[in-house]
Amino acid sequence: MKKFLVPALILIFCGGITVSVFPLSKFSGRIVKFSHKVHVVGQGIECEACHVYVKKQTFAGIPDIGICLGCHESKITDSPEEEKIRQASSRHEDLEWERVFKLPSHVYFSHRRHVGIANIDCVKCHGEVWKMTEPLTSPLKTLVMEDCIECHKERNVVWDCVDCHR
Q1: Between 70 and 23, where is the model more confident?
Q2: Who contacts 115 (Cβ-Cβ below 8 Å, separation ≥6)?
Q3: What is the enclosing helix (H) or strand (E) of 8?
Q4: Cα separation of 105 and 89, whole Å?
Q5: Which residues 6+ apart lie within 8 Å of 50 measured at CB?
Q6: Measured between alpha carbons, how far is 137 from 24 in angstroms, rounded to an integer?
Q7: What is the pTM assigned to this prediction?
Q8: Concatenated DSSP letters for 103-151?
Q9: pLDDT digit string, tens, across residues 115-137
Q10: How confident is the model at residue 90 (pLDDT cuts 50, 70, 90)?
């Protein structure tokens, strides 16, 4: 009996660490395998329909479940992904999205300034996301400071260090 006690305790301990490091909710099925292509190409939905703050705030925003339910509250297709939206809603849960576009903390970027005011197309920085049939796992374009400076020069706008680095 004692020879099984130590391995059992180790197993329980490791299981506890696994659950705390990789929470069960991460694998709960709330991550929707979203196809930008189906929505943008197939349905003609613009980026800002889901990323509602893109023209108004610094952060473009990721869709909350209410935006998805605007179309998917009732069944449209037989997609299990669509069903995940309704199931999460019935449990009063929001959807989980993987954030793939991240800037260093010292870089300031305003979607409102670039998209809302300067009318820069999302593709310029994000690439052809609208062609994606699977969720993004990494950025389609890797931006470096030279990309930003080049764009600022093309548009004849300021490119002082303090405009983007704060």
Answers
A1: 70
A2: 54, 55, 60, 122
A3: helix 2-21
A4: 33
A5: 39, 63, 67
A6: 20
A7: 0.75
A8: --TTB---HIIIIIIT---HHHHH-SGGG-SS--SS-SS---HHHHHHH
A9: 999 999 999 999 999 999 998 88
A10: very high
